[in-house]
Amino acid sequence: MSEESVSKLDPSRATPDRLLHTGATDDVTPEDLVLSSGRDVTPETLEWAKRRLEKEGRSALDTQLP
Fold this sequence. Notes:
Blueprint: H1 3-7, H2 30-36, H3 43-56, H4 59-62
Helix pairs in contact: 2-3
């Protein structure tokens, strides 16, 4: 997209703020942690994630992400 076309974007077509979120306020699930680690979701990896979330809380997910 050129600079000119970016400056002419129609604000009425922008995504409303209420729909934009980072997930920072959402609870992290064991499945989130398993998927962020690049592992398959299995009973074993879900148990691993549950233990890690109990120990580290939300920061367990932060260490998985770049």
